[in-house]
Every structure is written in C-alpha cells, then in structure tokens.
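Take one record.
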Amino acid sequence: MFSNTKNLKVKFISLEGGIYVFGFRKIASIARKIHPDTKIYFVPTSNYYSITSFLLPSKNSTFSNLDATAVAKQVSDADLICFSSMTPSAPCVEKIAKIIKQINPKAFLLWGGIHCIIYPDQAIKHVDAICIGEGEKSFEIFFQAFSQKQNFKNTPSMWFKTKSKIKKNKILPLCTSEELNSFPHPYIGLDCQIYNISKKSFYQFTYKDYIKYNGLTYRVMWTVGCPFSCTYCGNESFVRLDPHYRQIRYPSSEYMISEIEAGLKMYPFVNSISFFDDNFIAVPIKTMKELFKKYKKRVNLPHYIQGIHPNLVTQEKIELIGQSGANRMRMGIQSGSEKILAFYQRPTSIKNIKKGANILIKTSLKYKMICPSFDIISDNPLEKKEDIIQTLNLLYSFKRPYTLTLFSLRVFPNTPLADYFNNNPDIDISYQKSSYLETRKTLTNIAFYVLATFKPPKFIFNWIIANIKDYDKDQESSKIIYFIAKFSFLSSRALRHLIKTDFSIMAGSWVYYLWRLRLIKKNSSAL
C-alpha cells in the first residue's frame, strides 16, 4: 500500500445500463488492492436485460436531473472520485460532475471508459482528468503520485486539465498477456453500494441486485483485442490509439478459471457462465483445449460463447466448444450482401458465412444446445432493395433452428464508418440517436423478426421480398404488425432459454424470487 493514503477518501462510480461493466471492475479491483478503503458505487441508468429494454429500448432509461443531484450529494465528500461510463451514460456523468464541483470544489474528478477514448475533447471539459487508454497500469502510476502529493499530471495514458491548457500525455504500451496475468481479478464483491432511482439514494448491494441486472449467469471476458477492422465497431477507437490492439491478448487459463471459481463462490445461484469476448474464436486451439479441460473439471456449468467470426470457424473448434458444455453460441453475420460486407470491411465470403452457420447449427443440435444466434445489422442508409433481399435470402436458406440478434446500425465516433458519414453529410442518419436495439418499424425488420422466429411458407416469403424497399424510400409502417412480430420473436427466444433454465438473457427481480422459492436450482446436471 502506498504511504499517505490512510485518510484519503476514494470513490469509484460506474454509470451504465447494467452492472457487469468489465473495465470498471478491473480498475476498481486494482484500486482496492492499493487502497483497501476505496468505496465502490453502481448507478444503473437502465437495465439492459430487462423486459422493457427488449420491447421498448428507448424508454428504458429513467435517470433524471434529480438523480444526478442525489448521486452527487452522496459521493461529493471524497478527495478522488473516479467515473466510468460508455457514451449513452456520458450526459449523466457530466451532470453529476458539475454538481460535485459546486458542492466540493476540491474533489478531484477522473473519468475513464470508452466514452473518454471516443470523445476525449468533450469528456475533459467536465472533469479534471480522463484516461484515454487501458487503465490498469496508468491508474496505479497516477494514484501513487496523487496520494503522495507529487506531480501526477505526467501520468501516461491520461489527459489533465490545467489553468492554461489540456495536458495530453503519451499512451502507454498495451498490457501484455503476462501483465494481464498479474492483475487482481475484477471486483465482484457485495461490499459496495447501488443506486435506487425510486428512493433517490444508495443502499447495500445484495444478491437480489445482482440477479436483477445479470440474471443467473456470471459474465467474464477472457481476451482483449480483435484482429478484424469492422468499420462500425468501437474497437477501431482503440486501434487508432495503438495498432497492436488487433492482437489477441489474454491471461492464462488458470487465471480465467480461478476468476470463475471466485465468482461462483460469491454468487451461489449462478447456473451458467457467459464469455463476452469480442473474438473468442481467435484463441489458438491448443489454448482453448487447455481452458476447457480445466473448465470441465472445476466449473462444469453450461456456458455461452459469443465472439465467433465466420472466417475463423472450424469444425474442430466448434466441436470443442460443444464438448466443453456450451449451451449456446453466437456468430456475427451482419449482412448477406457482399457489397455491404465490403463497406463494413468484413472480409467474409457468403460461402464462409453459410459454412460457419451450418457448423454452428449442426453442433448445437448434436449437443442439445439452445439454437445459435446470428448477428444482423439493419437500418443501414446505404442499403438498397437488392442488399436487403440478399440478406433475407441468405437467412431463409439456413437450416433450422437458429435465432437472430438484430441491431439497428449506430455510428461510433472515431471509426471508419463515422468518417464515411462525416464526409457524406447528405445521408440522413438522424435515426442513429436512439438505442441500437430500437429498429425501424419497416417491413424489412418485420421480416427479420419473422425469420428469427420461424421459416414462413415460400409464398409468404416471396410476397415479403416483392414488397421490400430501399432504406431511403418512403415505407409504410405498421406499429401493430411490427410489435406482434417482435413480441413473438422475443417470446420464442425466451421460451428456448426457459426450457433450459438458462437466465443469461433474462433478468429482473422476478428471477430473484424464482430462485428464492427454489424453482430454479444451480444447474450442473445438464452436462
């Protein structure tokens, strides 16, 4: 522990649409290691896995100015206040920071998270400093100097506000696999506070709160980085800071398994594990085998693998995932149009997509998993009728069962996609301001929800194809049919998970009460 920290008040605050916040938990854990009295607060601005989030995504956030005031009043007595947020929650941080400075001008405000990497010039206006890179090493350097009242404004990977300018320090090299292995596990404790919007106050975090926002799954992220350069992906902001971000890095399999074991010990109700890696499938087969061998022996719970890219799908890897006890998989397709795939810089052939999807579907049937999910991006202003039809035809050709994860295209700053639309201001992207789960109420999206639910007769599908229009053409909108299609899709997907007693995509207080009534038990017998 560093000297001169005994009386130092440090508070960490996460403002997100949930509480699984991997980056925040990593840095909070490091803070606790060097300053055990660090207080940790969660302010859920919405609940990503609630029923409301799926049905009415843009109506899910209820965080108000009154909430900002209440949060600020309850944390403003600290010497160092560290925020973490993504861009949707950034306005909440800005409001809270302003009020804190009015209450306690001496409080030092530090802001981290992807918003500060995407919008550094905007974020620094509201706080004293921001972290614009990986924060594990830079926070420790900063805190050592800050706690000892030394010059902390030379901390790498951080910007500092001074009287005359913004001091922009160099970016530290990315953490190596060896360094990732040396960090403490992400914070998972119950000794923290969570904000109650209805009561405008914080209270002690409990099992009920975990289940309300996470369901009965424990979410982990083993790998960092992605070898691909998709134009729409926020990872491009990291790549622009350091091209080495394209390299996959990860701690040892022992580190990952011991983290999961700690999570299961802390939360005895967990009945599945979710790997939230961007590109899990890029891990070498030898390393994957090592991880799953330990997983089967020491964890032996159903698990979910996302981060599967069609170009890296092999029968051997997917078979290994099936043998390891996976209960579902998710692969990114995004489009069935070669033109749109090229625009997204997805170097994926339609042949590879079909091959990868077929392997996932067959393996899921073989190991009696929940059917695989395929990501599709809709509402692209550049899509013409033929592009949409190609995607629908591709999905119609797939064997069953499968489902879709449908996203409405959103433009992240500092990505090639943002550059394109900035250079083409005549293209209307006003719809981009809503949640990416909020798809337009068009026949195209109705068709996607239908295909995600069942395979319609050929004559109905042909009628849909005949009536599809370009994105920018006037389209009739049927809110009732759209709602029925989306509700049917969500209901069928929920039913598949309920049959397997999987609560990795369903959360809420109701799940907690099911567990408390012993209607749901820890599920290790499914393997």
Q: What stands out?
A: The domain at 10-182 is CATH 3.40.50.2300 (Rossmann fold). The longest strand covers residues 326-334. Residues 523-527 have pLDDT under 50 and may be disordered.
